[in-house]
Design goal:
The protein is of the alpha/beta class and about 250 residues long. The protein has a single domain (about 5-240), classed as Alpha-Beta Barrel (TIM Barrel). The chain is about 40% helix and about 15% strand. The protein is built from ten helices and eight strands. It has helices spanning about 5-25, 40-50, 60-70, 90-95, 105-120, 145-150, 170-190, 210-215, 225-230, 235-240, and strands at about 30-35, 55, 75-80, 95-100, 120-125, 155-165, 200-205, 220-225. Strand 4 (about 95-100), helix 5 (about 105-120) and strand 5 form a beta-alpha-beta unit. Helix 3 (about 60-70) packs parallel to helix 4. The model is unreliable at about 240-245 (pLDDT under 50). The chain binds pyridoxal-5'-phosphate (PLP). It holds the Pfam family Ala_racemase_N. Keywords: Pyridoxal phosphate.
Length: about 250
């Protein structure tokens, strides 16, 4: 991973193209979202220069710092992909076009309250814990449809699909089962024809498993390490912050 951001991006795009080819999918239906937690701004700017436009952050504070600095690049859009505490909603709503990690009704309510104040709407994905790992955020697969339905009643929230994180340190087959489950859930929810709910997006797949995710129907893959190199911060820190979890 000693290569430049630009070279790494070429490899990722090539892997995306190959996965699309393997699974008979149109490459235009798979969007690359760069996961940028802990990545310094000069590297983000390299990615912008190389043509990338979608960036995802995990923390409200880091998003705020990077957002203002990255605003020079007008086409850049930010997504929020981390665990979101209700008291951080205001900062996040200001900066992003989509939140991938809505996993509970209380967060939906907090987002709605803020969005009403700002007289706008927000695209959201509902995060599902498809691996049933205790360390992971996300609604259980069993609760998915009910949560989507409840969230859809907030008229400022536009549910666009589902998001998941594949099982960690798992076999390819276990990972594939997670993604397959997310796809099945999205089909089941779509069949319910819930007003104002679209099941268009499946946000799944990271550096280690985005090829499998694309084979299983991902429309957004979230890639960090493969492009920017290792992070020197344990991933668990982002997925299992023990502060204010149940707010
Ligand atoms: C960090 C992160 C990613 C990217 O992970 P890599 O393994 O670095 O590609 C994707 N999704 C979420 C939610 C993340 O926190």
């Amino acid at each position: 991973m000693g290569n430049s951001v630009e070279e790494n991006l070429k490899m990722v795009r090539r892997q995306i193209a190959l996965a699309c080819e393997r699974s008979g999918r149109n490459i235009a239906d798979v969007q690359l979202l760069l996961a940028t937690k802990t990545v310094p701004l000069d590297k983000l700017q390299m990615a912008v220069q190389a043509g990338e436009r979608w960036f995802g952050e995990n923390k409200a504070q880091e998003l705020r710092d990077k957002y203002s600095l990255m605003q020079q690049s007008k086409e850049v859009e930010w997504h929020f992909i981390g665990h979101l505490q209700t008291n951080k909603v205001k900062d996040v709503v200001k900066a992003v076009t989509m939140i991938h990690s809505v996993d509970r009704l209380k967060l939906g309510q907090a987002l709605h309250n803020q969005l009403v104040k700002e007289e706008r709407t927000m695209d959201i994905l509902v995060q599902i814990n498809t691996s049933y790992e205790e360390s992971k955020f996300g609604a259980t697969p069993e609760m998915a449809a009910e949560l989507v339905e409840s969230l859809s009643r907030f008229e400022t929230l536009q549910v666009k699909g589902l998001m998941t994180i594949g099982k960690l340190n798992a076999t390819n087959n276990e990972t594939r089962q997670c993604f397959r489950l997310l796809k099945q859930l999205s089909i089941q929810i779509k069949e319910k024809n819930i007003p104002r709910v679209a099941m268009e997006q499946l946000s799944m797949g990271m550096s280690g498993d985005f090829g499998i995710a694309i084979e299983e129907g991902a429309t957004i893959v979230r890639v960090g390490t493969y492009v920017f190199g290792p992070r020197y911060v344990p991933d668990e820190y982002y997925w299992n912050e023990n502060t204010e979890i149940n707010d």
